[in-house]
Design goal:
This protein is an alpha+beta fold. Helices cover about 25% and strands about 30% of the residues. Strands 1, 2, 3, 4, 5, 6, 7, 8 and 9 form a nine-stranded antiparallel β-sheet that branches. The N terminus is likely disordered.
């Protein structure tokens, strides 16, 4: 068994801490005068049974720390917003506005490729982590959104479930991640799909 500090350190890597850095570009997920895509509001995330959701400001740049599996692909032009509950659930939305629709299509395909190999990549990076994943299908919203689940366990017994989605509307791509301690039976897939549809619809 690890101590509390080590446990928290791993959760920061796997579940993604809610701390963010950079310059805030908008507040509360509303569109800016320059046309910045709108972000999810806390109430649009999968409901938590015992806590409200809280949101950080919408912030320019890559999230810090980078989210697992998709983080390395996120460019410096990313804009993100982090969310958390009073307990163990966190979430993140990252949006990238590309120069044209083809570049956005290619970027979305790269993110999907990274998610398709997520479990294997995690285990390769850390031999104390075991991971499995599921593909939950395509959602018919704008140019499409794709949903994935990743379950991780550690050699000392930690268990975390994360859901990811990649969606596109024209030249804009958004990634949404939701996570908490637990396993696939704790994954709020139906609610997360609704959240994803909302996120893509808010891009314009």
């Amino acid at each position: 068994m690890t101590n509390t500090r080590t446990r928290r350190g791993l959760l920061a890597l796997i579940v993604v801490a809610t701390a963010t850095t950079g310059v805030a570009v908008t507040a509360m997920g509303t569109a800016s005068a320059s046309g910045t895509p709108r972000f999810l509001s806390p109430s649009q995330l999968p409901p938590h049974p015992s806590s409200p959701w809280y949101a950080s400001p919408v912030t320019a740049g890559q999230p810090d720390p980078l989210p697992m599996c998709v983080g390395e692909a996120l460019p410096s032009i990313s804009v993100h917003r982090a969310y958390h509950t009073d307990l163990d659930a966190t979430a993140l939305q990252v949006t990238v506005v590309e120069r044209n629709a083809q570049r956005a299509k290619d970027f979305a395909a790269l993110l999907r490729e990274d998610l398709a190999g997520c479990a294997g990549s995690l285990m390769k990076q850390d031999p104390e982590v075991s991971a499995t994943q599921k593909y939950y299908g395509r959602l018919p919203v704008e140019e499409g959104a794709f949903v994935y689940g990743v379950h991780t366990t550690t050699s000392w017994g930690a268990s975390d479930i994360n859901l990811f989605s990649v969606g596109r509307d024209g030249n804009i791509v958004t990634v949404v991640r939701w996570g908490q301690m637990g396993s696939y039976r704790d994954a709020k897939v139906a609610d997360f799909k609704k959240t994803t549809v909302t996120a893509v619809n808010k891009l314009r």
